[in-house]
Amino acid sequence: MMPPGQILSALLLLLLLLLLVPCRAAPCTPHPNATRFVCTEPTLSTFPSGLPPTTLAISVEFTALATIVPTALAGLPHLQELHLSSNRLAALPGTLLRPVPTLRVLDLTNNLLPTLPADIFATTRHLQHLVLRENRLRALKPAWFRHLPRLLWLDLGDNALTEVPPEVFHPLGSLRSLDLSHNRLVSLAPDALAGLGALERLDLEGNRLGTLSSATFVPVPALRLLFLQDNQLQALPAGIFVPLRHLSVLDLARNRLRALELPPRPPGPALDLDISGNPWDCGCQLVALLRRVTPRLTATRDTVCASPPRHRGQEVAAVVQAGDTGCEPRGDVQHLPDTETRGLVSS
């Protein structure tokens, strides 16, 4: 039997060890009466429970969360923001959002979602920002957007979408920004953007678009920012940009374009135009066009002429500013006033 003195020493040693080793509390414990809950604990694998009914915003991001139960948001009737980016979610329950009809923002960036339940947004008519970027979506379901009349921002970038079904966005009459960048789109149906009369920003960067219909942009006359860089466009139909009278930024960089047609511009700021990285035919037609519309031309080192031979390898901006001595002398090409070229900027 251990002497009493040794027992006391052992107990004291055990107590000291307990004091030195910190107690590991449950990660991200909700605080009573809080309005915002934030958790970025990498070991978190279960959606936190016990959130107070006063919660307005939830951020559970950069965790190991792989599943979420249908009742995870029960008892949160005032929730307005739900941020679940950079987790491991591969599926969502169809009834997940039913308890939160006041939701305004939903961010599901960088998860593993191949699809969504058809009726997941049936009760979120107040949703304004929906971010589905960096998932594994292969197809768009019209049912997703049927109940989102107030949606302003939709981000579908960095997925695996191969097409945009006709009129799939038709219910989104309030949408201002649509991001379809870095998908696998080869073409767009003429009515792919139908219903988006309020759209101001469209990002199609980094797809595989080889052609566009002349009617592609007819449904979006309010468009101001259009990004088409890093596609495979070889030609653009005549009049394709005519409906876009409010266009202020047009990015056509790194395609396969040789010719360009732009509509007459109304009075106002010059057009920000990036045409770098294309094999341009710097003949009389392109030179006259760029001098006439006076865009602010973003001309980098790879904005060079591929033809005709007299201009091959020259910078487009330099050819435009100098004019083309190989063209027939005409007032609209050879004798334009200096004000016609002030918008050209070589960077």
From TrEMBL:
<dbReference type="InterPro" id="IPR000483">
    <property type="entry name" value="Cys-rich_flank_reg_C"/>
</dbReference>
<dbReference type="InterPro" id="IPR003591">
    <property type="entry name" value="Leu-rich_rpt_typical-subtyp"/>
</dbReference>
<dbReference type="GO" id="GO:0005886">
    <property type="term" value="C:plasma membrane"/>
</dbReference>
<keyword id="KW-0732">Signal</keyword>
<keyword id="KW-0433">Leucine-rich repeat</keyword>
<dbReference type="Pfam" id="PF13516">
    <property type="entry name" value="LRR_6"/>
</dbReference>
<dbReference type="InterPro" id="IPR050541">
    <property type="entry name" value="LRR_TM_domain-containing"/>
</dbReference>
<dbReference type="InterPro" id="IPR001611">
    <property type="entry name" value="Leu-rich_rpt"/>
</dbReference>
<feature type="compositionally biased region" description="Basic and acidic residues">
    <location>
        <begin position="327"/>
        <end position="341"/>
    </location>
</feature>
<protein>
    <submittedName>
        <fullName>Leucine-rich alpha-2-glycoprotein</fullName>
    </submittedName>
</protein>
<keyword id="KW-0325">Glycoprotein</keyword>
<feature type="region of interest" description="Disordered">
    <location>
        <begin position="327"/>
        <end position="347"/>
    </location>
</feature>
<feature type="signal peptide">
    <location>
        <begin position="1"/>
        <end position="25"/>
    </location>
</feature>
<dbReference type="Pfam" id="PF13855">
    <property type="entry name" value="LRR_8"/>
</dbReference>
<feature type="domain" description="LRRCT">
    <location>
        <begin position="278"/>
        <end position="328"/>
    </location>
</feature>
<dbReference type="InterPro" id="IPR032675">
    <property type="entry name" value="LRR_dom_sf"/>
</dbReference>
<keyword id="KW-0677">Repeat</keyword>
